[in-house]
Amino acid sequence: MDFFILSFAVTNGLLLGGIYGGVALGLSLIFGVLRVVNFAHGSFLMLSLYISFWLWSIFGLDPYLSALINIPAMFMLGFAVQALIISPLIKRESALVVEPLSALLLTAGIFLVLDNAALMAFGPDVRAVQTSYYMPSLMLGGIPVNSQRLIGAVAAVIVAAALSWWLRTSHLGRSIRATAQNRDAAAMSGINVPFVYAVTFGIGCGILGLFGALMSTFIPISPSIGLSFGIKSFIVVVLGGLGSIPGCIIGGIVIGVFEAVASQFVTATSAAIGSLALFVLILIFRPAGIMGRA
Amino acid sequence: MHRDRFYTKPGLWLATAFSMLSLGLAAPASAADPVKIGCALPLSGGSATVGNQTRVGAQIAVNQVNANGGIKALGGAPLEIVFADTQSKADVGVTETERLITRENVAVICGSFNSAVTFPATEVAERYKTPWIVVGAVKDEITERNFKYIFRINNKATFDAREQIDAMDLLGQESGKKPKTIAMLYEGSDWGRSHAGNVKKIAAERGYDIVVDEAAPPNQVDFSNQLLKIRAAAPDAIIVALYTPDHLLFTRQMMEQRLDAPFGIHSVGGGMEDPAFYKALPQAAVDYAFVQEDWQIDKIKTTQDPLMLDANKKMEEELGYGLSAYGAQGYSSVYVIADALERAGSADREKLRDAIAQTDIKDGPALITGYLGIKFDEQGQNTFANGVISQNLGGERRTIWPAQSRSADVKPVWPVPGWSER
After folding, report:
1. Domain count, chain A
2. Shared-domain flag, residues B173 and B54
C-alpha cells in the first residue's frame, strides 16, 4: 500500500472515529453517573435524526439550524424518560445496589418501543436530508475530506472538551460528579439526586440531539439506524473507559482508524472483526479501558 | 342453579342457530367461498421498504381480479390475500409459513423477497405440499432442489449476473470501448454472495478481471473504507449488490468522494430499483448509473393495457410513487395464481400445483414485469424470465438492454463522464 492510500485511510478513520466518539458521549456520561447501561441509546439517536429530517422536510429548516430545536427537545425527552420511567425503578432497588441491572432490561424495552413506534409512525422508507447548497469536499493534499463529516468529528472533540470543563467548574457539574462518586453521600450533602439523574440523562440525550442534527446531513435515516450506532457506541465506551469523557473520543478514534487501515488489507468485514479482537486485547491489559481508572 | 339455567338456554339457542347458519352457508354457497392466498413478505426489518411495495402490488392485483368477477371457474369466487410478516428473518419466515399453511389454511403462498428467508421457508411449503410462487428471491438453489411445489417467476441470480455482463458486452460492441477491470461490492448474505459468485464466474469466462471483491454486512454506517479500497484498485466498472439503506449511503459517499469509474456503476437492483432510493438522493449522485431489475422501468410509458395503467395509478395513490419492480412482481404473482386457479377449477393444493406447473402465459397483466413469458421448467423456474437493464439518463431510467426493448430515442452514455466533467 502506498503512502497516499494509507493517509487517506487514516483521515477516513479519524473522521468516522470522531463521530463514533461523539455519539457515544451521552452513553458514557449516563453510565458514569447513573450506572445505567442505556440500551436505548441508538434509538434516541434515531429519534433525533428524524427530528432534524422532519424539521427540514416539513418546515424547510436547515439541518444545522435544527440543532437549536433538536437539542432542547432531546434534552426534555431524556429528562422525562429518566424522571418518569427509570427513576421509579432506581428508587425501588435497594440503596445497596450500585448498578441497577434491571434498568438495562428497562432501557432495552424502551429501545424496542421506540424503534417499532418509529417504524409504525414513519414507515420503513429510507430517507435522507438534501441541503439546497452543495458543500464541497475539502481537498487535503489530494484527499477529499467530506465537510459534513469533518464538522461532526470536530464537534465531537469540542463537545467532549466543553462537557469535561463544565463538569469540573459549574455547580451543577460538581453535583453530577459528586453523585457519580457516591450517591448516598451526595444526597446527605443536600444534592437532589433524582434531579441530578434526570439532568444527566437529559444532557446525554441532548448531545445526541446535536449529533442527530449534524449527522442528518450525511446519513440515510431509517427506523433501524439506531442499532448500528448503538452497538458501536457500547464498544467505544467500554474501550475508552466507562464514564470517561476523553476516553470516549479516544476509543472512537482507535476503532475508526483501526478499521479504516485494516480494511485496506482484508475485507471490511474482517477488519470489523479484527477491531473486536483489538478490543479484547486492550481490555486484557487495561481492564478499565484506555482512559478508565481501575 | 336457577341462574345457570337462565344463562344456558340462550347459549344453547345461539349454538343451534349458528350451526344451522353455517350448514346453510356451506351447502349452496361453497363454490363462491373466497380462495385464500398467503403472502409472506418482509414488512418490517431491513427489507421492509420493498416488502411493502410487493404487498401493495399484490393487493392491487387481488382487488382487480375480484372487481372483474373473481375466479370464474370457481363460480366467481373472490381472492382473499393473507399477508404474513417475515421481518426479513429466516426463522420468522419459516414459522409464519407454517402458520399460513396450518392455521390460515391458504391454497397457495407467494413471497418472500429475501433469498435467505425464501430458501428455508419454501422447504416448509414443500413438506406441506403447498404450492409457492417465489417473488423477488433470486438465489439459484431455490429452484434447483427437485422440489415439486416451488415455482419462481423471476430471474435466477445467474440470469441477473449474466445480464449485467451481457449489457457491458453489448455496449462494448456498439461503441468499441469496453471495461477490463471490475470491482464488486455486495451485501454479505445469501443474495449478495450468490450474485458475486456468479459475476466472478461469468466475468472470468468473458475476459474481465475482478480487482476488488468486497462483501459488507447489512446496515453499514460508513463506506469510506470500501470506497478507498476501490479507489486504490482503480477499476473500470463497479458492480454493486446492496439493499436500499446501504446502497444509498454508498452512492452518496461515492459522490462526496468524487470517485470515478469510467464505465460506471452497475447495480443489480436492491437499492437502485427502490423508488425511495431516488427520493433520498440528488440526481447528480445517480446520473449514468446502470440498474438491472426484474421490471421494465419504462413499461408504463409503452403499454396500453388498462389493467396495468390502473395498477400504476392505484400504486401512486397508495405509496406516492408508481409501480416499481417490487410492486410489479407482487402484482404479477397474483395474476399467475389467478390464471392457475381458472385452469384448475379448484382451490385444492394438489390440483392447483398441477395447474401452476402447466402455466404458459404469453401476454396479459402477469407480464407487467417485462418478462417475455411465463412457463416453468421441471424445477419450477420460469425459463422466459429476463430482467431489464436501464441507465439513469437525465433523471429517468431508460431501458438499454435487451436491445429490442430499447426505444429509439435512448442513447446510452458510455463510457460515463468523470465527476469533474459533469
Report:
1. 1
2. no
